[in-house]
Design a protein that fits this description.
The protein is of the alpha+beta class. It contains 6 helices and 10 strands. It has 2 domains: about 140 residues, Secreted effector protein ssei fold (Roll), CATH 3.10.670; about 45 residues, no CATH class. The strands form 3 sheets. The chain has a 5-stranded antiparallel beta sheet. A 3-stranded antiparallel beta sheet has the order 8-9-10, with no helix packed on it. A two-stranded antiparallel ribbon has the order 6-7.
């Protein structure tokens, strides 16, 4: 993953989306959630990530709604998972007219170089950029991000017509009896049996009654 640190921001983002444990294709998270989750993922994978805080100008505030914004940044590029053409606020994104776009954007975030952020964000009242530490953003009673709305958790249940302890057919000709010791997933998201791809085995449910 180290080569992703400096050059391939799009690759970093896609790797994060593949690893994510949240149902971002069916439920919404807010900017504070994505900045936090992405930052923590980058730390875990040895990728240098910074947090950028955008303060909203007072004349853009609707009622009592203060919509400051926080975005992760890798290699000088802002990665915004909640960007839409109508705005980035929770009120805008949860509007039924904009919700489908907001859902799609979570899997295809807006990537903007830091020197061009005003072109994208000034129309919603964001004209100043502040680099902020993870601690100031999220730790303690005075942290900037007090509301963290995560999407729904993905259902991690792996549904295959076998269980640990069953026997499947494997080997070169898929005719060798192999006891299932573990069912999981590899880095690509493929289901595995005993750490090998599911497609390398034959699952014959009726076969179980002949096993002694």
């Amino acid at each position: 993953m180290k080569y992703l640190k400096r050059y391939k921001v799009n690759s970093v983002v896609q790797e994060y989306i593949r690893d994510i444990k949240w149902d971002i294709k069916n439920s919404l998270g807010n900017c504070a959630f994505f900045a936090k989750d992405f930052y923590e993922w980058c730390q875990k994978n040895g990728i240098e990530c910074k947090l950028i805080y955008l303060k909203q100008d007072e004349n853009f505030i609707v009622g009592d709604e203060i919509e400051d914004h926080i975005i992760p940044m890798v290699d000088g590029q802002l990665i915004d998972f909640v960007y839409t053409d109508q705005g980035v606020s929770r009120r805008v994104r949860k509007d039924k007219r904009n919700e489908s776009e907001a859902i799609l954007r979570q899997s295809n975030p807006e990537i903007t170089t830091l020197d061009r952020f005003r072109d994208k964000y000034s129309k919603w009242g964001y004209n100043t950029v502040e680099e902020i530490s993870y601690q100031d953003a999220y730790i303690g009673n005075n942290s900037k991000c007090q509301t963290i709305d995560p999407p729904k958790k993905l259902n991690e249940t792996i549904e295959v017509p076998i269980e640990v302890g069953d026997t499947v057919l494997g080997g070169r000709f898929k005719n060798k009896k192999i006891k299932v010791k573990k069912i999981g997933k590899n880095k690509k998201g493929d289901i595995t049996i005993n750490d090998k791809p599911l497609l390398k085995f034959r699952i014959v449910k009726e076969f179980k009654k002949f096993i002694k």
